[in-house]
Structures are given as structure tokens and as C-alpha cells.
Amino acid sequence: MRTLLTIGLLLLTTELSFGQIKAELDSIDVTASRITTTISESGKNVSVITQADIQEMPVQSVDDLLRSLPGVNINGRAGFGVQADVGVRGSTFSQVMFLLDNTPLNDPLTAHFNTNIPVALSEIAQIELIRGPASTSYGADAVGGVVHIKTKTYMMKEIEAGEKLQTRTNVDVSAGENALRILDATAGVAKKNIRFSTSFRSASSDGEQYQNPGFEQGVSSQENYNSYFDMMNLSAALAVDLGTNWNWYVRSGIENRDFNARYFYTQSIYDESVEDIDSRWALTSLTYENGNHRSEVNASYRQVEDIFDFNSAISPANVHETDLLFLNASHQYELSSDQLSSLSGSLNFMRFMIGGQVMNKEIVSTDRGDHETTSWGIYGIHNMSFESGLSVTSSLRMQFDPISDLSVLPQVSAAYDAGPIVVRTSIGRAVREGDFTERYISSEIPDLTPGRNIGNPDLLPEESTTFDLGLDITPTNNLLISPTFFYRSSSNLIDYALTNSSAINNANNLLPNEDYFYASNISESDVIGVEFISALTNKLTSNSNLRTEAGYTYIKTESDGNTVSRYIANHPSHQLSLNLSLNAGDITVQTLSKYNVRSAQSDALINADVPDEYFVTDLRVAYKPFGGRIQLYTQVLNLTDTQYQEILGAPLPGRWLLGGVKYSL
Asked: Does residue 230 lie in a domain region?
């Protein structure tokens, strides 16, 4: 606790930087709702990570990037983006919506796959974190927040290139301990009304070696095991200005992940899991814009095959194939200046949007069976801004699902810009349906071994209402102080609770009088918390500056249920972050540090331990000769060699050294 107080005092005396902060709050466009607004107009607590940030930070995956943001809780099962659960403001990992170029990434099999981002880091132009619910705009799952990943071609799809052929290339090659090898590359061309890009990423390692608890207990012949991984994704995108106000964009790709998954999902001594995931996907958008009218159709398709081998000596591997088809259509109308003046001379703009959305999910599974669901919704969004500095966004969604029938989801957010202070607030409802894993996991496995997860086909949908109130204070252009209070009340929350088989009446494959993690509606819960962000850039000399980023999040979750849940309160109660970046000529030094205080967990049988507090810091030193087009760098991940777990049984990497070179043209 003394360490916590020390870091807390440091946080309160340091600041976080986004350059000219006030200008960016007023100018960076984000999609806090489907109507694009600036950060200061959104009424939400929004963070933006740009491509320039990604190039400089000591990270190797999107979940590493998100770790640097206050209010975000990452429960990793392995490093380097293999797999991680992401919560926002104390939400479960299933309650965060991931979007890629305005289409959903959330996997219908399990939300454990939501961070399987199928594009190279170098192809990502911007990542937006919108804290708080957004179900009215984006549908189910957007309870705790939204992570919107936008690629370079998508963000430039409506910008016409010049007459001369334009090219861009980014290559990042690195290697490190434990036979780590990473290649991340993207290339693009543009001319007049056509843009094309392609990206590739591969990351592999033998992993770290651990003693096998199964060998010690006499149930396995393997004395040790390695946390190996081998991952690859390939994608391509095309944007075409079709003329007469039409624009078309399409992106498609493939991805493969092969990794050790031991204790990722269970604490069974028999767990010797390995997993192989193949996905094929495509997304597209067609827009028409004429004067004050804008129509857009977004569609995506994703097919994923997951082969999960728990223990080949006990049972054959489980094979799951899922298909996700998404379609959204919307029309936006903005009142002209003449119309605004006739309504009210105090209005800057007023926008209306109506839309509809359909999502179809299918699964064919050896252990979950064959199932299909279709949900759909219709929504309306109204956004207006006044000359006084007040901006208001209100929305309403009617969500239809074959299980929950009709859900009515209203939301209102507002911001008042008073120069150096922006006051923002929002309130809204959100829902989440159980995924195929929560409903059907292990339902087709005979004589299921104790300690494993078992699904519940009778789950009710989760429902929640969230309120927040915050300030963005910018006394100078380089300084931001941003406190936020939030409260979320939820009912019918879905979680895995340790339950005796005698109390489970909708599964016939369980052993008598044994305990299983049973997917259940864990009654109600209340989450209360605060976020604090501060930001500043200090100019040290004519060619050097120090950027400091700091944040603090406090979260308290209370539930009226008496059962011990697995995921609902699996977040830190106190979380501090401190990110430092020193730029001095051709040299850049950056650190990302995190200190978490949370409930401890342990399981002696599998040598598992989640500590009650831990500190982790990553360091990166880069040298940029030749004007910055070539960058030589070295990184030390987990500099303090902290031994810790965030999911019980899955050790996260210790100190890990790597080095590489980046080339940009």
C-alpha cells in the first residue's frame, strides 16, 4: 500500500500529453455515436491513440496499447497479443464492443477472441476508446465501452489522391529472447480516385518454459511445457470514388493463431490445452453524400474455425466453426445554415440519423452443438450544437432478439464547452445476450471432468443503466486535467459460478456431486468508480521534450448474489498508470508502467497465483537517423521481471528483451 500511495502522489504531480490538447479536443473526430463529432462535443470520456503513438510505444499488440489507458482493465492469458480479456470501467470482457472500420469484431463463439485483431499494427491509423454504453448506436455488447479500430485506407477512403501516383510503405522487423520473431508490414498506393493497401503481420516464439503441475501429480508424462505461439494475418483494402457522390470501400483478410492454451479457461489438473484458430473475413461500406444528405451501408462477414485440444489422452479435440453476418444501413441529414437560422439563431448545427441493423450468428461445434440466432434493431440519433458551447446527442434503439424479444435502449449525452473547461455527462441503457460458449459450452462432452465450464441455454440477457459526469480542464494548451465519476447498475449479469452438479438441471453430462463453473445470471450488481487523467508536454531544450501520461482508476463492484463469480469482479480496485516519453534529437525513450491492486487468487494444485498487487513496466529506446525514416530500437518488456498472473493459471511473460528496425517511406 505504501507503493500505491507513492505512485498516487506522483500521479497527482505529473501530467499526460497529447500535444496541443485543447486544439485536439476541439478538432479530432470520433464516433462516440454513429454521428461523427469532435471529442469535446461527444459528451463522453474518449481517448484516441494515433498511428504516431503506435510507432513510438513499447507495445506489440492492440491489448498492449489499451493497457496504457485509464479505465481499461486487461486480463491477459499470454503476451504479444495471443489472447486477452478487455474490460472498461469494471465491465466484464464480454461487455466491450470491438469495431474494425465501423463493423463489429465481437466473436459469436466467445468474447475471449474479441482482441484477435486481424490487421497489422502498422495498418492501424487510429484507435478510439469510448468509455460508457453505446448500445443505442452499435447494438448489444457495447455496455462498458467501445474500442473502434480504424485502418489507414478506411480513414482516407473519401479523400481523393493527386494526379501523381502516391505510395507508402511501413516495415517493422524485430527479434528477441525465446526465439521471438515479428514482422509487421504494410504498403499502399493511391492515385486520383483509387486507394489500395495490403498488410501482413507474423509473430512467433517458443515461449517461456514452466514446470508442469500435471507431471508432479502423476497425470501427465510431460515434465515441462512452453507458452509457445505462432500467429499470422494478411489483409488487403480498396477504396474507390465512384463519382456522382458515391464511394465504395472493401477490406478482406485471413488470420491464423496457434498457441499453448494451458489453463486459459480452466483450472483442471488435466488441462494440457493447445488451440488453433483460423479466420476468413471481409467488410465493406458504400456511401452516398449529396449536400446535407448522407447514406451509408456497412456489411461484414467473418468465418472462424477454432480447434481446441484440452487433452488428447482424455478426449478428442473440440472443433467449432462460427459464421457472423452483419448489415447496417443508415441515413443522416444535417440542417442547412438557412434552416438553422429560421429555427434558432443560436444553433451551430443539427443532425439527424435513422438506421437499421441485422446480425446473424451460426455455430457448428463438436462440444456445443449446432445453433443459429438472428437479432436486429432500429435506431434514431439526434445531435445538435449551440453557439453557447452546449452540445447534446440523444438516441433511441429498439433491439429485437429471439430470446429477449424487445429491448428499448435510450441514451443522452451532453457537453458544455466553456473554454478552458468542458463539462460532460451521459446516461444510457445497454443489453448483452449470452454468446454460444456461455449457452452451450461442454454440453456435448460425455462425463465432463470437474472444474470445467458448463453452459446454460436458459440464460436471460444482461441489462444495465450507466451514468457518468466529468470535466476536461485545459488551463493551458498543453495541460489536461480530467476527472470522471461513473455508476453502472446491472441485472441478470452472466458469469461462471462454481456450482455443484446437483443444482444444475439442464445438463445431463455431469458427474454426480462434483463442482463445475456454470454459466448463470448472477442476480444484480452495482459498479461505482472514478477516473482521473492528467496530461502535459514540457519543452526541455530546443530539440527535446518530455511527455508524461498518468491516470488513476478506482472501481468498486458490489453484487447481491452469494455465489463466487469468475469474471464479474475480476478487475483491479485501484489502477495507476504512468507513461513517460523523452524525445531528444534522434533519441526517443519511452516507458509504460502499470500498478494494480486487486483481489488475490490461488490454486496450489496447478501452481497458480494472482497477486493482490503488482507493478509492471515496459521500456523502449529508439534511435532515428536519416530524418526518422529508419528507426533502430530495443525494448525490454516487464523490466522488473514481475512474476504474475491476471487469469488464474496462465503466467504472463517475465522480463523479455527484443530489438528491431522500422522503415517508413
From this structure: yes
